[in-house]
Design brief:
This protein is α+β, with helices and mostly antiparallel strands. The protein has four domains: 184 residues, Immunoglobulins (Immunoglobulin-like, Sandwich), CATH 2.60.40; 78 residues, no CATH class; 152 residues; 143 residues. It has twelve helices and 26 strands. Helix 4 runs parallel beside helix 5 and helix 5 packs across helix 6.
Length: 580
């Protein structure tokens, strides 16, 4: 953002003036004339909830909306191109730096982004409200920058807004590594390379927009943001500017800000676990949450969410009791640094949502259209697939409280949602038993014949596969399997306890199935199934374990004493609905 200004003192003043007023105000332009450039100011734009959510990138701290927000539509020469798809919205917020100074931060965006990117804007300011008789004075002209000598001062200015230089470098390297000529170049050169490369390569363009929303220095370098020290109530106007003729083309936004403590965004609804009993839900937690009306009304002033995970013991500790009352966002963030083994922010980037739930339907997992069993906002797997992963207790049966906060435009957390207790479950089914065979066990006891089927299979020797039981089923035919397999109690004839043994393939498990009691006679055909069952920690895990593998053996032919019957094996997936 190259600063061309008629009042350089406005750009560099360091006064620490601070009022006791606790309200920063956002006002919107509610009318305007049609400039020659084709940028039209339109009044009366409906402030619908859907539009507010669409522009949730905009957040304001200590903000009180004084009127309905209005975007400016970029009109073409014909009225047919005017519509809600061409809209520019402007928002502002304040930030107190380490020296106690308050800063004003203005940010504007458009849909589509090309409406503002690459254009030049002039920022004007005057003391007081928009109705103040004072005159506006131009304090800066901002535009997209690619010269590192112009970018570096903007990055230093962004540090007064809480910008984390290390996080900026990390994100630049991870998102735009292929665009960097060398990893040793300066951060300003990296921003320049990211801007120049993203403008010409579409695959990086969305990453550039994301960077502008989470790093104010990048936003100012793109020419879509402005920051300055705020000493009194001030009204700002952002105007489209023609540098060639040094003239303003039209007002795109008006914001009134006051120095003062930040207003925390309202809390989202308590997170809700989205059930996933399939192997995709193995050792991970899928969450979604409601967006209450107070937060929806500030949708323009909010960008994304953060998810926090707290161990059950720590949350319920007598000195915390976060299970009863959620902590403040400051406490939550501080504990994530001091006790990371108990408190963790799960996400690195803002969690963005493309669908909103109310408190009435967020937990409705019925099939559509009545409910939504699929949508989730975030899946927490503790990052266990990363190369440097260290497990601090995210294992089967572990219990955690999850909390959610809404982020403002500068990434600050709003009020914390109520916590939800969730159990991490092992939902990956065990492998099917192998080496299954059936023998005829025939004997005389007291002069009377007794006949059984002896089912034999290899014992599980994989210690990472915590098998507890083997379930044995008998079916009349394959069709009966498909018809009755939905209920795990159907045709269950034996449960054999797993006993740990030596890790050798010659270890066998046997189950004797009495023929007469099951009405299987010589010459009768049937199917025997053996299923492993996993060790589940806690009732919740057991209740949600649904997907298993079945190994089936079909017994054919006339049975003879101690003869090995003909045997055909098959394996299939088993989904017992009764285990829900």
């Amino acid at each position: 953002m190259k600063a061309k200004t008629r009042n350089t003192d406005q750009q560099s003043r360091n006064t620490a003036g601070c009022s006791n007023v606790n309200v920063n105000r956002l006002t919107a332009v509610c009318g305007g004339s049609v400039p020659a450039s084709g940028l039209a100011a339109v009044s009366g734009l409906p402030c619908s909830m859907s539009l507010m959510r669409f522009f949730s990138v905009f957040s304001v701290v200590r903000v009180l909306l004084l009127g309905a927000w209005v975007g400016l539509l970029l009109s073409s020469r014909t009225a047919a191109q005017e519509g809600l798809d061409n809209i520019i919205s402007t928002a502002g917020t304040t930030y107190q730096d380490s020296a106690g100074r308050y800063w004003a931060y203005l940010f504007w965006q458009s849909s589509p982004p090309e409406l503002v990117l690459g254009r030049t804007f002039a920022v004007y300011a005057k003391p007081g409200d928009p109705s103040s008789p004072a005159s506006y004075a131009r304090v800066s002209v901002v535009s997209q920058q690619t010269d590192p000598r112009n970018i570096e001062p903007l990055l230093r200015r962004a540090e007064n807004l809480g910008e984390d230089p290390a996080k900026l470098e990390q994100d630049l390297q991870s998102l735009f590594e292929a665009l960097m000529p060398s990893p040793s170049i300066s951060r300003a050169e990296k921003v320049s390379a990211a801007i120049r490369g993203s403008v010409t390569q579409a695959e990086y363009f969305q990453n550039l927009l994301l960077m502008a929303r989470i790093h104010p220095g990048v936003a100012m370098s793109l020419g879509v943001a402005y920051a300055d020290v705020l000493t009194e109530r001030t009204t700002y106007e952002v105007r489209l500017f023609d540098p060639g003729s040094d003239t303003d083309q039209g007002v795109i936004g008006r914001v009134t800000l006051e120095p003062g403590p930040a207003l925390l965004l309202p809390a989202p609804g308590a997170p809700v676990e989205v059930p996933d009993p399939t192997p995709k839900g193995d050792i991970n937690v899928k969450l979604r949450w409601a967006t209450p009306d107070p937060l929806r009304r500030l949708g323009l002033l909010q960008y994304g969410f953060n998810v926090w995970r707290v161990s059950k013991a720590y949350a319920e500790a007598a000195t915390n009791r976060w299970d009863l009352t959620p902590p403040s966002p400051q406490t939550l963030a501080a504990r994530a640094l001091t006790v990371p083994q108990h408190v963790k922010r799960c996400n690195n980037l803002p969690i963005l949502t493309d669908k909103e739930f109310s408190t009435n339907d967020v937990a409705n997992f019925s099939p559509p259209p009545a409910g939504d069993p699929e949508t989730f906002y975030y899946s927490d797997d503790d990052g266990r697939f990363r190369p440097d992963y260290v497990n601090l207790g995210f294992t089967n049966g572990a219990r955690f409280y999850y909390f959610v906060t809404a982020r403002d435009i500068l990434g600050r957390d709003g009020l914390v949602s109520p916590g939800t207790l969730v159990t991490v479950c092992d939902r990956n089914p065990p492998a099917p038993p192998v080496g299954v065979r059936v023998e005829n066990d025939y004997s005389f006891v007291g002069g009377s014949p007794r006949q059984f089927l002896r089912v034999i299979w290899n014992q599980n020797t994989n210690t990472a596969d915590p098998v507890t039981n083997y379930w044995v089923y008998r079916w009349t035919n394959i069709n009966e399997i498909h018809f009755k397999a939905g209920n795990p109690s159907n045709n269950l004839i034996a449960i054999v306890r797993h006993t740990n043994g030596p890790a050798t393939a010659s270890t066998w498990i046997t189950a004797r199935v009495r023929l007469l009691s099951r009405r299987i006679w010589a010459g009768h055909s049937g199917t025997l199934c053996v299923r492993r069952t996993l060790a589940r920690a806690g009732r919740i895990c057991q209740a949600t374990a649904r997907l298993h593998l079945v190994f089936c053996g079909i017994v054919l032919g006339r049975m003879r004493p101690r003869a090995v019957s003909r045997f055909t094996a098959c394996s299939r997936r088993f989904v017992p609905g009764a285990l829900r």
